[in-house]
Amino acid sequence: MPNAETSVFIELLKFIYKPNKDKEENSSMYRNMYRTLLLFIVSFPITLILTIIITYITNKPSKAHESIDDYNFTLFLLACLFIPLIEEIAFRLPLRYSKINLSLSISVLSFYTINYFFTLKDHFDIENFFFLRIAASILVGITCYLLCVKYSNSLVKLYRNNFNVIFYFFSVLFALMHISNYEFTLDTLLLAPIITLPKLISSFVGGFVRVKYGFLYCLLLHSFHNMIPFLIISTKILQ
């Protein structure tokens, strides 16, 4: 009989193999937080070790740390709270269907897409028609919401019958989005499935936490994943 610590990992593996959208567990906040921390304690070292190995083998270091030129509290909030929040809205929020969940997700995803048509330092560069890009993504989100209202029954049925496809789609999309952290070359594109493997694992774990425990817990998990590397890099800068 597996104990509570072991059972959460068994549930995770079963979920990744066959995702299902059962109702969120009706558990205490303490239990959900405890299980989320357990998953973080195991998943973070795995993804970190994989990242180091893959970087060594492919000689493709991430450019994400280059944005941390100088430690400050604003940058900490951006890397460890704001970016995780935006990415969780885009990729994990819609794993529980509602009109507003899907519309917010599509709005953020459209913002990422629109940004590729501009020369930007990153997705949150406030130059180059920033407010126009924001307005366009909001318009896409509103349009999506109106379509959700019109086709609500069809979308509910789609989620019910194809949740595993939806889960895998958002998980893979999350991983592939992070290919932008690397120098854009042909071999980077060819190696994308390998380079983004750690992000895919993180996405599977985050998706499981979101579906089983709720959005707040997957947001915390994501924040933890960003916080440790940020603090390590910042500590080196401050030395």
Automatic annotation (TrEMBL):
Keyword Transmembrane helix part of the UniProt annotation: yes
Record key words, sorted: Hydrolase, Membrane, Metalloprotease, Protease, Transmembrane, Transmembrane helix
Keyword Protease set for record: yes
One of the record's GO molecular function terms: metallopeptidase activity
Membrane-crossing residue ranges in chain numbering: 37-59, 71-93, 100-118, 130-149, 161-179, 191-209, 216-238
Gene Ontology biological process: proteolysis
Protein name: CPBP family intramembrane metalloprotease
Originating organism: Chryseobacterium carnipullorum
Phylogenetic lineage: Bacteria, Pseudomonadati, Bacteroidota, Flavobacteriia, Flavobacteriales
